[in-house]
Amino acid sequence: MQVVTPSPDHVTTTPNAVMTGLAAPSRGSTELSTWQVRMAPGSSGPEHIVDREQVWTVTAGALEVTAGGRTETLGAGDTLILPAGVLRQVRTAAEAMEALVAMRSDGQVSVPGGAGARPLPWAQ
Question: Which residues contact 122 (CB under 8 A, 6 or more apart)?
């Protein structure tokens, strides 16, 4: 058994969101990574592809996700399962959003036209 205590060292801030790493290989997990995502109102992440399935559970606010040409809006309590290898974009509307995300710890992300796949730092 391992207890992970929140730490500022586990926080990654990007122009679009703040990710707080929870479980990850660097914190004792061998198979899964989990993290909290916080996005300000009107924020939008880049279009990207993740090579592993992700499960997003919205804990506050609302989230709009476009994946594979389909758009869904989720509110607090809703859970979204995003398949691996599908182009997606995550954005908020008029209110801030928080979600918990789970993924296999070996997942990598790529951006169309970018320099290849890379690991998600908060999931390491």
Answer: 10, 11, 12, 19, 20, 21, 24, 33, 35
Other C-beta atoms within 10 Å of 90: how many?
25
Q: How far, in Å, CA of 13 to CA of 122, rounded?
A: 10
In the CATH scheme, what architecture does the domain 8-107 have?
Sandwich (2.60)
C-alpha to C-alpha distance for 112 and 86, rounded to whole angstroms: 11
Query: Could you report the per-residue pLDDT of 67-122, keeping only the tens digit for each?
Result: 999 999 999 999 999 999 999 999 998 889 999 999 999 999 999 988 889 888 88
What DSSP state is assigned to residue 94? S
